[in-house]
Amino acid sequence: MDGYEHLDLDEIDFAPMEHDIERLRLLTLDETYELIRVLRTAAEEGGAAAQDADRLAREIGARIPSKS
Fold first, then answer.
1. What pTM was computed for the model?
2. How do the domains of the chain map onto residue ranges?
3. CA distance readout (Å), 21 to 8, 25, 40, 48, 60
């Protein structure tokens, strides 16, 4: 388990979801930067999803380290 053997998965609070739904794997940092770029482009172009794209880009961007 890559150093996480001490964790008891029954004691961790995961986000609620249906039991028959598979969780997505985590994004790499590079994939996250690419996703933010796509969201910012969608926000700048306007349209029905522009506000959601801008909000998501800001929320995701606030949770990752700055790209140097």
1. 0.62
2. 23-68
3. 21, 13, 29, 28, 23
User: Which tens digits make up the pLDDT trace of 23-44?
Assistant: 677 889 999 999 999 999 999 9
Q: Residue 55: how many CA atoms within 13 Å on its side-chain side?
A: 4
Question: Could you tell me how many helices (H) and strands (E) the chain has, helices first?
Answer: 2, 0
Task: Tell me the one-letter amino acid at 30.
Answer: D
Which residue, among 40, 41, 42, has the nearest Cα to 59 in the 3D structure?
40
Find out whether 54 and 39 touch, Cβ atoms under 8 Å.
Answer: yes
- Distance CA(27)–CA(43), nearest Å, equals 21
